[in-house]
Write a structure and sequence with these properties.
- This protein starts with a helix and ends in a 22-residue tail after the last strand.
- It has a 3-stranded antiparallel beta sheet, with helices on one face.
- It contains 6 helices and 3 strands; from the N terminus they run H-H-H-H-H-H-E-E-E.
- It has a domain of 108 residues.
- It is mostly helical and 165 residues long.
- Helix 1 runs antiparallel to helix 2 and helix 2 packs across helix 3.
- One of its GO terms (molecular function) is hydrolase activity.
């Protein structure tokens, strides 16, 4: 299957299903040749970024944000044709989502606080001198900035005359 088809499908699915598909695709493209722990760490970074709201409020928005993850970097014609790796990526993504749905103190974090990662053998990002959280396989994970979960503003907290709608 081609990346373009997967991203189109994600655009018409219900948000939670779409996010699972986008996370699976990202794990596949970024880490299918990495260990289970490396795949889990990639998923964790995407979920942490989603929670911050800085790159979008859904996993699909986060992983397709310009030049952030493989779905926005590789050709839309890229084929995801390793069915064994795809199955593993789906399993990793679904498990990561279940883990991330737990309260923050109960989650099993692989790369605590990591907001970015890079395969330094093929990339040299400007933030590569940031705090290194871990190196797992070919990826080095970084805490480039402190990410806080976005705060949903309650209507009662908005200034008078402004509504959420």
């Amino acid at each position: 299957m081609k990346l373009a088809w997967i991203l189109w499908l994600a655009s018409v699915l219900p948000p939670q299903t779409a996010d699972s598909l986008c996370l699976s695709t990202t794990v596949y493209l970024e880490a299918r040749d990495q260990s289970l722990r490396g795949q889990q760490a990639v998923a964790e970074v995407a979920l942490r970024r989603r929670d911050s709201g800085l790159w979008g409020t859904t996993v699909c928005q986060v992983v397709t944000a310009n030049k952030q993850f493989a779905p926005s970097l590789v050709s839309p014609g890229t084929r995801l044709n390793n069915s064994e790796a795809w199955t593993e990526s789906v399993n990793v993504a679904l498990a990561a989502e279940r883990n991330w749905a737990l309260p923050a103190g109960q989650r099993k974090e692989i790369v605590p606080g990591a907001s970015h990662f890079a395969a330094l053998a093929i990339a040299s990002p400007s933030w590569r001198n940031a705090y290194q959280v871990a190196t797992i396989g070919d990826h080095t994970f970084y805490k480039v900035q402190k990410l806080k979960p976005r705060r949903v503003v309650a209507e009662a907290e908005l200034p008078k005359g402004i509504s959420k709608g």
